[in-house]
Amino acid sequence: MTYRNPPTTPRKSATFDDYTLSEIRRAAATGIYDIRGAGAKRKLPHFDDLLFLGASISRYPLEGYRERCDTSVVLGSRHAKKPIELKIPITIAGMSFGSLSGPAKEALGRGATLSGTSTTTGDGGMTEEERGHSKQLVYQYLPSRYGMNPRDLRRADAIEVVVGQGAKPGGGGMLLGQKISDRVAEMRTLPKGIDQRSASRHPDWTGPDDLEIKILELREITDWEKPIYVKVGGARPYYDTALAVKAGADVVVVDGMQGGTAATQEVFIENVGMPTLACIRPAVQALQDLGMHRKVQLIVSGGIRNGADVAKALALGVDAVSIGTAALVALGDNDPRWEAEYNELGTTAGAYDDWHEGRDPAGITTQDPELMKRVDPVAAGRRLANFLKVMTLEAQTIARACGKNSLHNLEPEDLVALTIEAAAMAGVPLAGTNWIPGKNGF
Amino acid sequence: MPATTLSKTAAHDPRVFDLDQLSLRELNQALHNLAPGSNETAWEVLNPKGSHSVAVGVDQPVAIDVRGSVGYYCGGMNSGSTITVHGSAGPGVGENMMSGSITIKGDASQYAGATGKGGLLVIEGNASSRCGISMKGIDIVVHGNIGHMSAFMAQSGNLVVLGDAGDALGDSIYEARLFVRGKVDSLGADCIAKEMRPEHLELLQGLLDRAGVTGVKPAEFKRYGSARTLYNFNIDNADAY
Prior knowledge:
The complex is a heterodimer of chains A (about 450) and B (about 240). Chain A has about 450 residues and is of the alpha/beta class. Helices cover about 35% and strands about 15% of the residues of chain A. Chain A contains 15 helices and 16 strands. The longest helix of chain A has 25 residues, at about 375-400. Chain A starts with 17 loop residues before the first helix and ends in a 16-residue tail after the last helix. Chain B has helices spanning about 25-30, 200-210; strands spanning about 15-20, 40-45, 65, 80-85, 100-105, 120-125, 135-140, 155-160, 175-180, 190-195, 220-225. Chain B is about 10% helix and about 25% strand.
């Protein structure tokens, strides 16, 4: 018997993993960077790295089905004559008509209205589907100003000045030609079929001093009735929050890098901006330093998936959260029932993110008249309402276990972290220790 | 100057608002309170002294004479009113205007007529940089010169310049038409000189007439617009960005 040396198991590089290799080959073949939808997909420190302590001898809980746990929140009480009053602290984030189909926008409006919360327009203006079905509608004021007009500004319940978003802080939008139907083209005052490059900066103001004057103009046009939000991507949350407050915002929206986009370069989504978890404490700290915590409300978005995420965000000091990706999944996005069609597109349910191509089998991120018929706005709206109800019940369950009669009474002291990274970012102790990295000289 | 700050001496005398005496909020609220068909069709604003947001969001066909210079965003989002500024205007005059007209007797700062959807903006002096940025249907006529990066990403509408244009005119322009009588320092990405056909001469004559320009012939202008080579992304164009 001849002796054979033991074989070496083939070893793939951790640095040059399969995905990286495929991306090098794709780039070499096409000469174009990868554009996709959704937010950061890489593993990041997140709410999963935090735990609630619950009640014990020193803290007593509330009865789960008997004692009330308030979930309501008022947004915009600083300056607006007509603040927004929501039954739940979970809003629907801005997603444009154009990137989403009309029935999908209607479904978001129906679901949010059933749940007593608001939806938000997007880059592309206000549609009748959304205005008609959203009792409370936030109108985004974007650099592109597509479809922007004073009539819709006055028909809105709040105005959100969008400076940036978590998926691409510092980046503009891109709606590729294949999604530009006649209706989308008309709303954006551009020819059909051409790529629509949304600007990355506002055309008529730069910097915090200008922003203050811009906010004054919007207030004057709407007779100081509407709350004015300022939305920033998770880049410099302490300074961005402080500057937004200084500029006169009623509400600051901070969107972390897990927050989705309709279409941006993969390299941008995965490499620019900060995780949602890392954005919250600096933003809250800015409000506290200015004596404006709870006076200017803070909304955080990017990767909020369930009631535990809601409760954790609120415990860290935010007033409300926004959901986008999770809301689309509730409507039917990436549903395995369309697996055969996802396979034809070279992907699989749960991974589909080529939203910019307009061929979404679920009929949500498309302008194809046949595909969009797959979204029944009434049924999909009901699913969203169910999901929002579950999230709220989950958050209440946790809050009662922590002895809180309002979700907004949750506090950082209710939390511990599972990892050193999460402990440092959230400013709560590593579980089983009293160590908060960066505090007390350690 | 009238002694009273808020006078209505006769049915058709202008309603006078003195911003030394009354607040900007009171002015804009009074303008927004106008009902369709109101008799108060003439307004006069005194002592603007560089105030921001003078006469913003007006949506009735009234005439507003502003006696002095204004700050940012005068006439912003105007719908149907005729505003005349007897002075100069700060940044963003007539931003996102929908209809009506705004005339600046002096000069205008940056971003004049930004994202305007309709109506006519006339600047009798010079306009600074980014005039007509992202314009979406507005007509802008500048008697003097305009600064750099004007008509950046201009989508539709017409920009007429009797004087010269600064660097990077019409960068990343879509379907807006640019008419410049003087020299252009440089054209931006995808902006090219285009043939002036009879329909353009006719269009330009109409714009000059509406802006009250006399003694200037359309044939003295050159037309600029999009080469349309950047309309759909192509990696071989990457150097143009």
